[in-house]
Structures
1.
Amino acid sequence: MDNRKFLPFLVIIAFGLFVVIGLSSSLFYTLGPAERAVVFYKFGEGLDKQNIIGPGFHVKAPWNNVYVFDVSENKVEEGMDVLDKNGLSISVDVSIRFTPMPSRIGYIQETFQQDYISRLVIPEVRSSVRQVMGRYTAEEIYSTKRSEVEDAIKSETADVLGQDGNNVIMKALLIRAINLPAQIKQAIENKLQQEQEALAYQFRLDKEKSEAERKRIAAEGEAVANKIINSSLTNELLKMRGIEATIELSKSPNSKVVVIGGGDEGLPLILNNN
């Protein structure tokens, strides 16, 4: 068999394979578990925002563009200088965790493209941090209202990122560090220490007042009780109690000597009124 007859076919097949291999990056693409994509059709409807491509192996026309988004949770750490309510400069480090809405990545691509983090997320976080901290003093931000400031920044940032047109879900926002000028920081810490000492002193005073009031009430109660007892100790009652005590004493099996007083009652000496 003449192999020369098949040579053109082999050349065509080899050329076809070469073309397919060369275009494979333009024809085939694979999305991982945390990836979603949208396609831009150059000769068709343009950016298809409704059809979200899921994980797996896919084929496309080489002239179409595929925009891939990571829809897992992202994290950004930002450091910035802000002004407090009184115009004092404060250095703040914050962390934000977020994710794009998987069903809305087409709209994110249309508005911000794939660098939505630098175009949207970071600027909005910085803006919210500055606006919120501008409503508080350095002392409140540093100590007394830190959690309140953090919650306000988180709430306002989440509202902005999640609104229509932005389509980003914020998971968490944390203030990692607040750095004040050394002199201001020391003044705040001294003030807080003095406040704690004043509270401790007031606590001791309140405790001592409570103890004094308790003793006063106990003394008044004891005085009233003694007054009632004294008013009830009549001669007839004492005589009756003495007789009862003598009877009980006589019932004792032990040897005893009972000394009778010289009074009219004839009671044991220790019970005699004379």
2.
Amino acid sequence: MSRTHLLTGAGSGIGAVLAQRLLGRGDEVVALARSEERAQELAADLPGVTTVVADLAFPESVGSLVLPEALDSVVHAAGVVDLGSVAELDVEAWSTQLRVNLVAPAALTRAALPALRAARGTVVFVNSGAGLAAHPQWAAYAASKHGLRALADALRGEEAESGVRVTSVYPGRTATPMQEQVHAQEGKDYDPAAWIRPETVAEAILGVLDLGPDATVPDLTIRPR
């Protein structure tokens, strides 16, 4: 039976692979796009996808979304990163990462909760190893991801009686465009073969989405070999 999923970050990396896999098996995918132009690009790249438009940099924009009446999952795979020391990062760098990586997922989840409850669906937050430990130069990004972990933990308890399951996935460094950007910020050469394949993380998320009704996966950590 076809299921319906709402995805952020479907345009690249883990989110793109996951969208392709879900569409390929006949599921319905609703992809969030930041603009009408981006929505058209997603529709061209992911035949069969449905798009809705809201800019995660402005979390209040998700309030006007028209979503399906039932959602089997919401997968939060979008994110931004801007490295720098606490002494260097300005307020805008902090604010942008917190808005996109934390406040927007909270706002979108709130908007989707009626549909998730209707389907007893699953919320997946694609977190990061930075959501488990913070290192020098990663303060703002790690703070947003630590907050995302707190959001997931609170939501899990709040929605347990409604049948909505909540999973945090903590991938280590994964060969995505974001990882290439991180290497550039770090001043390091980028070798995608050194890191986890996005296909590997997408397969793990599919396992969470396909889990039987008798169990839940609260947290899933994936590390490079």
3.
Amino acid sequence: MVGRLFQIVYLLMENEHLSARELADRLEVSVRTINRDIEKLSEAKIPIYTTRGRDGGVSLLPDFVLNKKVLTDEEKSGILSSMKLMGTVAYDDEKEALQRLEDFFGEAAQDWIEIELDNWGEGYFDKERFGQLKHAVLTRKKVTFDYMKQGDISHRKVRPCKLVFRAQSWYLYAFCEERQDFRYFKFHRMRHLEVTDERFDPLSPPKGEASHYVSQKKTFQAIVAIDKCMAYRAFDEMNPSQVKEEDDHFIFTIEDADESWFTGYVLSYGQYAKVLSPADARENMIHTIEEMAGNYGAGSRGKFKV
């Protein structure tokens, strides 16, 4: 439906006026559907109106803000770029509407940006899950799932508000009925996801909602040496403005590191990383490595007895 509404606006931008029958024929729907769509566009504050008579029909006000004559090429290109980002996760009818907009803007539709959410083997983007959650947000249907946190798996029922891409990951921002508060839920930590038939009234998320995302764990500044053979990865994942180069390695400063994340992250570099400071982080790393070695040594001194 969203794509069809956009196509109506597009057609009226190209034509001074069209009858409801002409719109219905072009979009392959009934006149009754077109009349309902016109009502929805009016409710959305699109300056659309109808006139009766032989030369009447459906029209947009001449000074409609999206009229291509009042947009610069840079503004047109900016609109297309924003819509291309949404196009990576759009339904087929919305992608068709984007193509129509590109045709309408003509030469301004420069193909200067491409956005692909699949990340070439470094994790994955779950399009099916994205579609489920997008549907739940737009139709205001409650969602249930099992959510995995450190040391805990809990069942949740939530009222979804929006999808958020932050810090290289997708999150669902929703009201959690168990916690009675708004929360962020990471896509990849959800299991047994189900969109229910139970609907809910529109929500009003609190201002400053990003505070729910900020970690409440105690953090510290860490300094880590990374061998140059792993530079390709380190510069992808850490702040390149806080790095010093030595003969055979780089020294990175990591702000706001927390213990549970930091230890596992450095260990993922194997022998190609070394914690330089702080001292307690070095000691924790040594202790963790000794426990890991115990999993493979004689007598099974580690946590696993298999």
